[in-house]
Amino acid sequence: MHDPFLMKSIPDVFHDYIDKMQDVIGDGNYGFRAVAVSLGHSEDQWLYIRQQLLEELQSQFYAYQQVFTDGFNEVYESLCWFESPAYLRHWMIMPLTGYLIANKFGVIVHCLSHEQSTTCFPLWRGPEEFQSHRNITVALVGRHYFSVSLKGNYPMPPTTTYWNAHKSSSASFWQTMYWSRFELYNQHRSRSSKISWIHIKD
Questions:
Q1: Of all residues in the chain, what percent carry a pLDDT higher than 90?
Q2: pTM for this model (two decimals)
Q3: Residue 54 to residues 42, 48, 51, 63, 85: CA-CA distances in angstroms?
Q4: What DSSP line would sit under the chain, residue for residue?
Q5: pLDDT digit string (tens) for 101-134?
Q6: Is 132 contained in some domain?
Q7: Does residue 1 lie within any of the structural domains?
Q8: Which pLDDT tens digit goes with each residue over 8-30?
Q9: Residue 169 sits in a domain of what CATH number?
Q10: Which domain of life is it from (predicted)?
Q11: Buried residues in 75-92 as b, exposed as e (16+ CB within 10 A)
């Protein structure tokens, strides 16, 4: 059985595809805890995740400055904290941090919420550069993140303007490869909108 409170925070379009969910400690590091769990580690590895993402940001400092034109300083500051609890300015920022995760760990990152669900592909490496394609998912309820595992050919939420504007030519093939999954998401959303409109009219 899935936690009904956590289920409510995930858009209906994904409910049939949820394999499992895992909540994490709410100490302000929960975003990094959720990523650790999604990658197959203990949530106590949140510090390792922070350090790896900070290393990724610093290793391509100027490239990320061009990508995160309106949020680079915020992302940098959010990573520069290595204690528990973490203050607000050190909480994980999505979807921007999703690109650091995707690039560092070679995964596809989904962030689910009722406000905006997004997909983050690696920015500079195409799908042919990976032997297997691994997906990780975190969900947002209020300001709290938790880990979600999706199964099967689940619908993929859209990419963002950051990836659309700064992806390399080889990275653009991610979108082509998973186009049917984006279309499935749009179809689900369209049906949900029609059902809601019918209920309003009734």
A1: 89
A2: 0.93
A3: 19, 10, 5, 14, 18
A4: ---HHHHHTS-GGGGGGEEEEE----SS-HHHHHHHHHTTS-GGGHHHHHHHHHHHHHHTHHHHHHH-TTTHHHHHHHH---SSS--GGGS--TTHHHHHHHHHHT-EEEEE-SS--EEE--SS--GGG-SS--EEEEEEETTEEEEEEE-SS-------HHHHHH--TTTTHHHHHTHHHHHHHHHHHHHHHHHHHHHHH-
A5: 999 999 999 999 999 999 999 999 999 999 999 9
A6: yes
A7: no
A8: 999 999 999 999 999 999 999 99
A9: 3.90.70.80
A10: Eukaryota
A11: bbebbebeeeebeeebbb
> Strand pairing of 18-22 and 108-112?
unpaired
Number of domains in the chain: 1
Instruction: Give per-residue pLDDT as tens, 140-180.
Output: 998 899 999 999 999 999 999 999 999 999 999 999 999 99
Residue 8 lies in a domain: no
Relative to beta strand 108-112, strand 118-120 is antiparallel
CB 99, CB 162: distance < 8 Å: yes
Q: What is the pLDDT of residue 190?
A: 86
- Cα distance between residue 29 and residue 50, in whole Å: 9
Taking a C-beta distance cutoff of 8 angstroms, is the pair 109, 136 a contact? yes
Strand partners, 120: 109
* Amino acid occupying residue 155: P
Domain range holding 49? 18-201
